[in-house]
Amino acid sequence: MFCAAEAGRRGRRVLLIDHAKAPGEKIRISGGGRCNFTNLEVSPDRFISENPYFAISALKRFTQWDFISRVDQAGIAWHEKTLGQLFCDGSAKQIIEMLNTDLTKAGVDLRLQTKVERVQKTGDIFHLETEAATLKASNLVIATGGKSIPKMGASGFGYHVAQQFDLPLVETRPGLVPLTFGPQDLETMKALAGVSVAARVSVNDTSFEEGMLFTHRGLSGPSILQISSFWREGQEISVNLARDTSASSTLMDLRQTNGKQGLKSALSTILPERVAGSVVTRAGLSGPLADQSNAKLAHLHSAVHEWKLRPSGSEGYRTAEVTLGGVSTDILDSRTMEAKPVPGLYFIGEVVDVTGWLGGYNFQWAWSSGWAAGQIC
Questions:
Q1: Where are the alpha helices (DSSP H) in the chain?
Q2: Residue 316 in contact with residue 323, Cβ under 8 Å?
Q3: Do the Cβ atoms of 180 and 312 come closer than 8 Å?
Q4: Is the CB of residue 208 less than 8 Å from the CB of residue 263?
Q5: 3-class state of residue 348 by DSSP
Q6: Are the beta carbons of 167 and 119 closer than 8 angstroms?
Q7: How far apart are CA 56 and CA 369, in angstroms?
Q8: What HEC string does 168-211 produce?
Q9: Which pairs with CB-CB distance under 8 Å and at least 24 residues apart come from 151-154?
Q10: Over the stretch 25-61, which tens digit does the pLDDT of each residue have?
């Protein structure tokens, strides 16, 4: 929608085809219905790609401040939530309305519930076959997103188009997705379902410090969604359940002042009660603080701050917020998003091997890459 409006403003005759019943459905459900439309901290290091430099051009040429200006011009009130994340004060539908207004003003022809069945290129012209007609265009922009949330209409259509033109793909997989676990770990998580903690979750050399939520299926929450984009099957993650407090120091101090206090009660001073009880059980300890040696308290400290877990998998594309991987940036022009081997063919947004962190980064990549293509296509 954003790219189409940009191209239309340049006087181009633009047709926007969408197989959905309504435009911008992923926008509508995003951010709890308020749309986390960008982030104040956008920078290239907040994006994952086989080429970490590819996104720099588009992000610098159309920044978060540029999109914020568009939002302000549309009279949409917004606020910063946490970590630079910007949300509408009202509804995410306001962003969709803004984009629809831009399409109308730019003279873009929007056709909904229209499925493209085949794409071909003859000479300099693309031929798109739909159920109703065969359409012709000198330029074709693929802005179909990834496989994430198929119930919203997501599919691998964009990847199929790339493969048709012999363009390379980077392996795709679910990103920003809850993690699942085997029976033994899952029993612990089920018992804590609905409880959240401020955790530090790490894999390899990457860590995120945000909320973590226990669920009936495993672990979720911002810190888990973030780390899922860096985690690979078979790898172990480390969870620090009390990132700002030392469990051993707290328990040793309480042992001096209240030795009769039970471990669960003592640990509940820094963790939710149910989590504290679970940690004590997992550590295999019992009894009052006075009966615990320094070695036992150190063991409990590790259970709090260095909980090692090996996820069995993730919830997959069904709940993943994004799709990692996609059309290789090796064959795309970073300034225009045009496929170098196929003049006139452009790929923008999530279908490209550029994936942002949680928090509005993927929307900004959509705006920036869409803007870049819209200036030339």
A1: 2-9, 25-29, 56-61, 64-73, 93-105, 157-164, 183-191, 222-228, 247-257, 263-267, 273-283, 294-305, 361-374
A2: no
A3: yes
A4: no
A5: coil
A6: no
A7: 10
A8: CEEEEEEECCCEECCHHHHHHHHHCCCCEEEEEEEECCEEEEEE
A9: 151/318, 152/20, 152/25, 152/26, 152/29, 153/19, 153/20, 153/25, 154/317, 154/323
A10: 999 999 999 999 999 999 999 999 999 999 999 999 9
Q: How many CA atoms lie within 13 A of 111 on its CB side?
A: 13
Residue 99 token pair: 């984009």
Please classify residue 44 by burial: count the beta carbons closer than 10 Å to its beta carbon, then call 0-12 exposed, 13-18 middle and 19+ buried. middle
Q: CA–CA separation, 321 vs 22, rounded Å? A: 19
The amino acid occupying position 369 is S
Using CA atoms, how far apart are residues 362 and 371, in angstroms rounded to an integer?
A: 14
Q: Which two tokens stand for residue 49?
A: 């790609």
Instruction: Provide mean pLDDT across the span 344-366.
Output: 98
The residue to which tokens 């063919």 are assigned: 345
Place of tokens 């051993």: 248
Contact 64, 38 (CB under 8 A): yes
Helix (H, G, I), strand (E, B) or coil at 235: coil
Length of the chain: 377
Rounded CA separation 99/24 (Å): 9
pLDDT tens for each residue of 172-204: 999 999 999 999 999 999 999 999 999 999 999
Percentages of the chain per state (helix, strand, coil), in multiples of 5: 35, 25, 40
User: What does the pLDDT read at residue 332?
Assistant: 98
Rounded Cα–Cα distance for residues 88 and 94 (Å): 8
At 252, list the tokens: 């040793």
DSSP 8-state assignment for residue 87 = E
CA–CA separation, 176 vs 322, rounded Å? Answer: 6
The pLDDT of residue 275 is: 98
In whole angstroms, give the CA distance from residue 242 to residue 127.
58
pLDDT score at 23: 95
Structure tokens that stand for 125 in this block: 């012209």
Integer Cα distance of 84 and 313 in angstroms: 30
Of 276, 338, 323, nearest to 174 by C-alpha is 323
CA dihedral 23, 71, 335, 109 (to 10 degrees): 30
What tokens appear for 161 in the block? Answer: 């188009």
Distance CA 12, CA 25 (A): 25
- Answer for the pair 288, 260: CB distance below 8 angstroms, yes or no: yes
Six token digits for residue 95: 């962003």
